[in-house]
Amino acid sequence: MEKMPSLWQAMEQKGYSRREFLQFCSFAAALAGIEASGIGSVVEAFETKHRPPVVWLHFQECTCCSESFIRSSHPIVADVLLDTLSLDYSETLQAAAGHQAEKCLRDTMTKYAGEYILLVEGSVPMLDDGIYCTIGGRSANDILQETAKDAAAIIAWGSCASNGCIQSADPNPTNATPIHKLVDKPVINVPGCPPIADVMTGVVTHILVFGRIPELDSQGRPKEFYGRRVHDTCYRRPYYDAGMFVEAWDDEKARKGFCLYKMGCRGPVTYNACSVTRWNEGTSYPIQSGHGCIGCSENNFWDNGPFYRHLASFPGFGIESTADRVGTAVGIAAAAGVAAHAITTNIRKRKLIDETMDESAEAKRKGGDA
Amino acid sequence: MATAAETPGYRRIYVWEFPVRLYHWVNAICVVLLAATGFLIGSPIAIVHSTEAYQQYWFGIVRFTHFVTAFIFFFNFLVRIYWGFAGNRYARWDRFIPTSGAKVKEIFEVLRVDILQMKLKGRLWIGHNALAGLIYFLTFFVFLFQSITGFALYSSMSSSFLPGLFAWIVPVMGGDFAVRQWHHVFMWFFVVFAIIHVYLVFYHDYVEGRGTTSSMVGGWKFERRDVLDERVGHNDHRDR
Ligand code: HEM
Ligand code: SF4
What we know:
The structure holds two protein chains of two kinds.
Chain A: H1 7-13, H2 18-31, H3 39-48, E1 54-58, H4 64-69, H5 75-84, E2 87-90, H6 98-111, E3 117-121, E4 124-125, E5 134-135, E6 138-139, H7 140-149, E7 153-157, H8 158-163, E8 176-177, E9 187-190, H9 197-210, H10 223-226, H11 237-242, H12 252-256, H13 274-277, H14 323-348, H15 350-365
Parallel strand pairs in A: 1-2, 1-3, 3-7, 7-9
Antiparallel strand pairs in A: 4-8, 5-6
Chain B: E1 10-14, H1 18-42, H2 58-86, H3 101-115, E2 123-125, H4 130-155, H5 161-164, H6 169-173, H7 176-185, H8 187-208, H9 212-218, E3 220-224, H10 225-231, E4 237-239
Antiparallel strand pairs in B: 1-3, 2-4
Helix pairs in contact in B: 1-2, 1-8, 2-4, 4-7
């Protein structure tokens, strides 16, 4: 079987120096959460292991995952993963088109059966035989099943592939379905709309270095990146604990950078690494830019509106109704019902109450110690 | 039915044992605290009396109170479940579940006599009537639901053992957001329950005059001696 060059070989060919390679190795090690003493093994892995071929499928998506991916903060990461680690098949990035591209995919699948990493971006429509998303005349599900069969590992990029995302918003007209529900192999979910570039490269790096998939949580997400909530490492957290909240977008408190909880921030219920790695080479993340987290890496975030309240509108009672409004109404109804019942009791049960009173009066009259 | 002239005199009955009363009031205090602090967590009021975050911590204290109370609430609830098997006949688990057709009939009778007042007189029970028992049984499920969802939420901010036991509910419900949403919704159950529960205690005391309200303090209820003499032992209710 024809082997891919190792990462170091590929980088050398592209003119990277040894020093840059080593820098990349320590960066990759840090991303994958390997301690400094383990960098040696990363270097060795990248020097000797043949880098696995990669197939990147695009289904119902907006390509924001790809866009995010090419903005990895370390230039070499992007360069290596895109050029050197050339994506053997990626509709967006490949040079080939049409039949040529299809052939490319077929070649990769047969030549590297059981070795290639399958990256899927987008959800799969399952309604009407998947007619809503076809490539080269075949349905997304068809393509997915075929490619997944011989994949060494499957990564679901983004909220579409992990959870369904916007396309699956109620009433989910195409029955958009996440990947893990369609294949019976373990799938690494990397949710986010899009996922953080450095998280994406971190996950791929983990597989490259260790040759196995990272430890996953109960929702199939790599623990190293999705183990904590945005809220847990948010730099505005002291304001949360102090109870100092922004009350309106243009108030003094917003200018001072108070916590955005009351503006609907979903950081407390969102598992992602935004507040640690941040975005665009560590520049910022939504909360740092003054907007609450909308929980884009959480299941169902698209239907949990409105985004400017930290809880969703109450199901079945219209868009403006909160649980509190419905609860207050029910509470008032209960109080009113109780009052009405008290009045009815005094009318309907008058006789009974009077009898009891008489019983007592009688006992008193008789001087008994009833 | 006894007429006024032959007033038979009343006897005390020890209905609610100490563990039941203790459970009741600990639970009542916990629920009030949990609902109040929970409501504040959901909709914090604007209290800012300092310029820097490190100078105040009221929201942290509210949350801390919620969590500490939650643990007390949970273990108190477990003790009550135990007492459902160890306690006296009025506290026993079978008081809460309509296990027989007679119990189901009882429920309809209470509905007709006390709630809808279609009928003026009906039987009286010394402990819970069957409808009350059933409502408390359902309430226990809400306790359980609040505990499961609450500890599941708490598991993301705690590494201790107990909350971890409940983390499984998060993927089942589809994420922390949904868990939190439902945890919040069920707060209102407690508000509505409290209104109706307290009212009905007053109602029964007012109409029946048997010391219902004070029974949860001292444990004693009062029942007519003649009724007790002939009935207690095989069937602890009386006709009015
Ligand atoms: C009577 C029972 C309870 C009631 C009425 C209640 C009510 C509430 C409410 C209304 C909230 C705010 C939700 C929101 O709007 O975001 C909340 C939050 C919370 N509750 Fe409870 N709760 C109860 C029991 C528990 C229990 C047993 C636990 C277990 C530890 C618990 C743990 C939590 C946690 C962790 C939060 C989130 C707090 C935060 O993230 O700051 N609750 N509760
Ligand atoms: S801004 Fe959001 S994530 Fe940050 S502390 Fe406030 S609620 Fe938590």
